[in-house]
Amino acid sequence: MSRALLTADSIAPAADAAAWTSVAYLLQSETNLKTELTKVSDTVANNARAMQDGFQTTLGDANKYTDDRMNQFRNDMMGLLNGTEDKLSKAESSLGQRMSQVDTDVRQALADELAALCERIDKEFTAARTDMTNFTEAKSQEGKSNLDNQRKDLDDAMSAAAQEVDKKLGDMKALVDKTLQDDNDAKQRDQKDRDERTNRSESEIWLKIQRLDELLQELKETSTEATEGLRHSSNKSLTDFKDEATGRLDGLDEENTRIRSAILEVENLATRRVDWVIKDASKRLRPNSASKASLHTSWFSPKFDMAGASDVGGDWCVTEKIHGANFSIHVERSGALRCAKRTAFLKEHEDFFGHYSMLSRYRAQFLSLAREVFETIETSSVALFGELCGGRYPHEEAPEEPHTRPVQTGVWYNPGVEFVLFDIGLAGTSGRCFMAFKTVVELAAKHKLPSVPVLLVGPRGDCTNFNPRFESKVFAAFGLPAISGNFAEGVVVKPWDRETAAEDRPILKVKTQEFCEGDGCPPAAGDPAMRDYLLAQVNDNRLDSAASKVGSLELADNWEAIVDLILEDIVQDVGDDPTLSALQPQLRCEAFDLLTRRRLALTT
């Protein structure tokens, strides 16, 4: 079968992969058959050449062997039959004839055998060729028949598939058309509803806008009239106030000298306690220029003199005022230990700014210090007063403490919550008193407890002149690196080397402007400006101060006490004023609002 029958032109275009596989198999079979026939032909030719070579070799060997044997025989015969040359000649002649005949017979036999072998090989080759031709024709017919059958099956399958696809496409088209129609109907209904709502909303908006325009116009007219009236009344009030203030200042300047002299003579007052926070200290003590520091004048401290502190000699000291939460540890002679905030003893399991971690570190030092005091002084209890501070220290060399929040912000002391000692109270038979601060510092150093940094020791005048604006020194007690711009809250001035009674203790506290809880002195009673002044007293610094005495802002149970303490502080600053009495409900609401905003900020 020729190759033309197996080309792509004789195969239907729609034949599938099976038909192509059959064609490839037939082509491969033809190629393999031709390869086998070529091998058989080469084998037959090689055998013919080998037979011819063998025949020539055999013939040459036979001739050589015959000649050799005849020569040997002749020689032998000549030796044996000397004198019988005639016989030998005859015998030789006869033998030669016989040998010629033998040679002819052998040649004829070999020729006949070779001819028969060639004829037999030709017959076998012809038979093999005939068989291969018949086999090739049969396989070609079989492949053609299979190809026709496969082509027919493929055509039938494709026809059935096409009909099935047409049917499914028709069903799908009908379903899609129905879905699109339903969707379009729903969208049209939704669009109609939206249009109706939009039209109604636009109508309402336009009505509201028109009403707002009318209200704004009315408000503008009212505001203009009120502004003009307020401007006239303010100008008149300011003029009157200026005249009155000028007169009062002139009178105050004249009376100042007389008052100072009279105050110095006052003795035996009901109280000798001084707890004085100087307002705007940082502004008053700040140098006038950035290039050259100016000397600041000494404070005139009337409350020191009024309290009888003018006769308190000896050295005084200046310590850093720490921005934290007041905390104290009370130790009894029995060894019982209780903790307290400023307002009350802590309840069982009450957490005060995470003080438990601090207490676990310093409990042994607290007890050992108290034992030494009990051994040297007759007292029923020892109270170690200090400040809880820290909770954050923003410096790259100070790793943060996990799950720790700062007690106060604005001044940074330590990554963890720490206790810094500033006083030791004693309960004796004659009443409560405070140990000399010099002794407090020595005991703290001996028992490895941090105490407030001592900035200056000297005469009272030098101590009261100390500038309260400086960078905090507390970090050095914990071996931490300094933070630039980490300014202290202020300073505390008190006696250095003498014990003072709790009810007769002169002490001066000076805060910088950033940490003041109020703004200047309060107006006179009945002054219209008193209302704004009182509202300004509810501020972040006062909230932080109250929280440091009560507890964390995050506990709702502390809120009522914190607000009460804020109002108590304002009453202490202002005194008995009718405006304060009338404004207390609003101040309370303002304090709760401030606390809520701070709590929300902490949460977020």
Task: Write up this protein.
The protein is an alpha+beta fold. It has three domains: 3-172, no CATH class; 271-289 and 296-516, DNA ligase/mRNA capping enzyme (D-amino Acid Aminotransferase, Chain A, domain 1), CATH 3.30.470.30; 519-604, Arc Repressor Mutant, subunit A (Orthogonal Bundle). Helix content is 58%, strand content 12%. The protein is built from eleven helices and eleven strands. Strands 4-3-5-6-7-10 form a six-stranded antiparallel sheet. Strand 3 and strand 4 (337-341) form a beta hairpin. Helix 1 runs antiparallel to helix 2, helix 8 (530-536) runs parallel beside helix 11 (578-603) and helix 9 (540-550) crosses helix 10. It is elongated. The relative contact order is 0.07. Mean pLDDT is 78; it is low at 1-14 and 264-303.
- Structural class from helices and strands? alpha+beta
Broad CATH class of the largest domain:
Alpha Beta
Tell me the β content.
5-15%
Rg over CA atoms, rounded to whole Å, is: 63 Å
User: Separation of termini?
Assistant: 91 Å
Q: Helices and strands, in N-to-C order? A: HHEHHEEEHEEEHEHEEEHHHH
Shape: elongated
Strand arrangement, major sheet: 4-3-5-6-7-10
List keywords for this structure.
604 residues, alpha+beta, D-amino Acid Aminotransferase, Chain A, domain 1, Arc Repressor Mutant, subunit A, 3 domains, 6-stranded antiparallel sheet, 11 strands, elongated, disordered N terminus
Question: How would you briefly describe this protein structure?
Answer:
It contains 11 helices and 11 strands.
Provide the fold topology.
Blueprint lengths: L16 H64 L4 H180 L9 E5 L2 H5 L16 H5 L9 E6 L3 E8 L4 E5 L13 H22 L4 E12 L21 E15 L2 E4 L2 H10 L7 E5 L1 H5 L25 E6 L4 E2 L4 E6 L18 H7 L3 H11 L8 H16 L3 H26 L1
Parallel strand pairs: 1-11
Antiparallel strand pairs: 2-8, 2-9, 3-4, 3-5, 5-6, 6-7, 7-10, 9-11
Helix pairs in contact: 1-2, 8-11, 9-10, 10-11
